[in-house]
Design brief:
Belongs to the phosphofructokinase type A (PFKA) family. ATP-dependent PFK group I subfamily. Eukaryotic two domain clade 'E' sub-subfamily. The protein has 366 residues and is of the alpha/beta class. The protein is built from twelve helices and twelve strands. It is elongated. Bound molecules: adenosine-5'-triphosphate.
């Protein structure tokens, strides 16, 4: 059968284990040999014990765990040709010509580059006598499928990335917990959530938690946001509400392009309203804990689709990324999605909101 390797790369997210499990189980079910590559690209470059054949039972009991059991890493070696040559050798030695990469846009970019360089890497290995003429013809193509693991939901072409829903659950749990203590003391809480170029977590959390105010990178608050915010907060208090919750996305900026920090928001509240205000930065808690039911199911569906895509791949098939369109799991051209994602980040950092929102639009998938 075909040799398929699966690995996780870049930042971790909940549901990655479920995705790996689905790839392993569905691959084996369809008669493929499936391998884990541990520690992302670093394991691919280093080879040895980092690349191991998976068995049906080797993925048992991990579905509910957060993070990624097979490890993830940032890898400098893979950014240079020499490192990728080593990686190619390690894959060919094990008969692997199919990769499932679970990561962010950087990891997918690396995979795409690897695929386009692949035949020249194989040629070089043949010249050096590392691979035989027979192996050379057998391993002339590398097939790539990507899945996006990210809590930020910041990838173009998919409605949800693996991990987003779990992170949202974690945020909501935290806000609920904080709201109880805030209620007791009539406090105002400023909750800072992740999302450098994407306010999805902050926005969805604010809808799900009755927050009074939210700052996200996609929305530039009016120049007089401090007084508007104070008016809103005090009107809630006057109406009998004992607490205020403000959610700040880490990527929120004002009209001058300056970051709106939790401290700034707190100072405004304390100075103008004399409320007892506290900041909670959720940080890596958002990435922790087990995956939600949604993420488990999403990862299972995406993992199975990734294997199918590899099974159906032909010589000229370009790398694809498995994504969610509405409730449908589909395949989209990997590099087009990556390029759009990077263009959105660029537009966001240049405060080109219209361009960013237009590029991110889900209509792209249709
Ligand atoms: P996150 O969204 O969590 O940052 P990511 O996949 O974007 O995830 P990166 O650190 O950008 O994370 O990339 C992970 C790894 O992918 C890098 O450490 C590197 O090994 C590889 N990689 C990224 N970009 C390239 C590239 N242009 N060429 C080769 N390899 C790359």
């Amino acid at each position: 059968g075909r040799g398929i390797a699966v690995f996780t790369s870049g930042g971790d997210s909940q549901g990655m284990n479920a995705a790996v499990r689905a790839v392993v189980r569905f691959g084996i079910y369809l008669g493929a040999k499936v391998y884990f590559i541990k520690e992302g690209y670093q394991g691919m470059v280093d080879g040895g014990e980092n690349i191991v054949e998976a068995t049906w039972s080797s993925v048992s009991g991990n579905l509910h765990k957060g993070g990624t059991i097979i490890g993830s890493a940032r890898c400098k070696d893979f950014r240079v040709r020499e490192g990728r040559l080593k990686a190619a050798r390690n894959l060919i030695n094990r008969g692997i010509t199919n990769l499932v990469v679970i990561g962010g846009d950087g990891s997918l970019t690396g995979a795409n580059l690897f695929r386009h360089e692949w035949s020249s890497l194989v040629d070089e290995l043949a010249e050096k006598g590392v691979v035989t003429a027979e192996a050379k013809s057998k391993y002339s193509n590398l097939y790539i499928v990507g899945m996006v693991g990210s809590i930020d939901n910041d990838f173009c072409g998919t409605d949800m990335t693996i991990g987003t829903d779990s992170a949202l659950h974690r945020i909501i749990e935290s806000i609920d917990a904080i709201a109880a203590t805030a209620y007791s003391h009539q406090r105002t809480f400023i909750m800072e959530v992740m999302g450098r170029h994407c306010g999805f977590l902050a926005l969805a959390a604010s809808l799900a938690s009755e927050a009074d105010y939210v700052f996200i990178p996609e929305w530039l608050p009016e120049a007089d946001w401090p007084s508007r915010m104070c008016k809103k907060l005090s009107s809630e208090r006057e109406a009998g509400q004992r607490i205020n919750i403000i959610i700040v996305s880490e990527g929120a900026v004002d009209r001058d392009g300056n970051t709106i920090t939790s401290e700034m928001v707190k100072d405004v509240v304390v100075k103008n309203l004399h409320q007892d205000a506290r900041i909670t930065v959720l940080g890596h808690v958002q990435r922790g804990g087990g995956p939600s039911a949604f993420d488990r199911v999403l990862a299972c569906r995406m993992g199975a689709e990734a294997v199918l895509a590899l099974m159906e791949a032909e010589a000229e098939t370009e790398p694809c990324v498995v994504s969610l369109d509405g409730n449908q799991v589909i395949r989209l051209p990997l590099m087009e999605c990556v390029k759009r994602t990077q263009a959105v980040s660029k537009a966001m950092s240049e405060q080109n909101w219209d361009v960013a929102v237009q590029l991110r639009g889900r209509s792209f998938a249709r």
